[in-house]
Amino acid sequence: MMISLYSAATGMWAQQYKLDTVSNNLANVDTTGYKKVRAEFQDLVYQYSKNAGSPTAVNSTIPTGIYVGHGTRLSATTRIFSLGNMEQTGNALDLAITGDGFFQIQLQDGRIAYTRDGAFKVDSQGRVVTANGLALIPNIVIPQDAVAINISPDGIFAAEMQDGTIQNLGNVTLVRFVNPAGLKAMGDNLYMETTASGAAIEGTPGQDGFGSLQQGYLEKSNVDVVKEMVDMITAQRAYELNARSIQTADDMLRTASTLKR
Fold first, then answer.
1. Are 174 and 151 in contact (CB under 8 A)?
2. What is the 3-state secondary structure (H, E, C) of 81-111?
3. Cβ neighbours, 10 Å, residue 63
4. Is 177 helix (H, G, I), strand (E, B) or coil?
């Protein structure tokens, strides 16, 4: 009977983790480039009283066996990199990746991070940066006398000058990973490369499987609000049922402890 107490407790912990994941997804439903996370679970070890296939007599074996599980545990949180909806903004420096790939961002300590958030700005030096002032790689500098910025689907930045000439500012490349779910989320819409993700593979937007760039658009979160609400309700009900299991097991123990001969 004590097994039921511990098994139900692991179930409550599991549903708490699931609710935490769902809550974070819902909190980021309007976060540009956010990718939803899915909590995954595994069952724990089993206690075997009889093993399936054990002999019982001549030419006779147990067909199924007898075993009791010991609950569940969180095995992984997997980030789903499906494409989010595209929102038209009209801002010349807003970029959406319509397919596979990440922008490269230079951190303050010199390391390179990666993002799907294409809401870029211009700092006081004319550099194209993120909302936190981190520079886009390669470094793109917008001239002060530029009157318009054009960005092609294959990543070419060009500025239209006051005299009508066109100045090439540089080419933005994208990177992708063999296992993007293995990237480490840092917050601020940034990811870091890990051993699990594999090394970054650099390429030109729109070529060799990389997504192309869409100027004046932003990729929204890929969170499905309806599904997350259903998952939240499911987690709540499962939590309540596990709590009821603990209460039932406790009532049975109380009954057993009060028995008189």
1. no
2. CCCCCEEECCCCCEEEEECCCEEEEECCCCC
3. 8
4. coil
Residues 6 or more apart whose CB falls under 8 angstroms from that of 223 comprise 25, 26, 28, 29, 34, 36
Q: Which of 107, 106, 141, 136 is nearest to 119 (CA)?
A: 136
Q: How many CB atoms lie within 10 A of CB 52?
A: 12
Q: Which two tokens stand for residue 22?
A: 């769902």
Let me know: does 38 contact 227? Beta carbons within 8 Å.
no
pLDDT at 106 over 90: yes
* Band (22; pLDDT cuts 50, 70, 90): very high
Q: How many helices (H) and strands (E) does the chain have?
A: 2, 22
Beta bridge partners of 113: 105
> How far, in Å, CA of 130 to CA of 137, rounded?
11
Q: What is the mean pLDDT of residues 236-251?
A: 90
Hey, where are the domains in the chain? 2-81+227-257, 86-219
Percent of the chain with pLDDT over 70: 97
Structure tokens that stand for 57 in this block: 């007599």
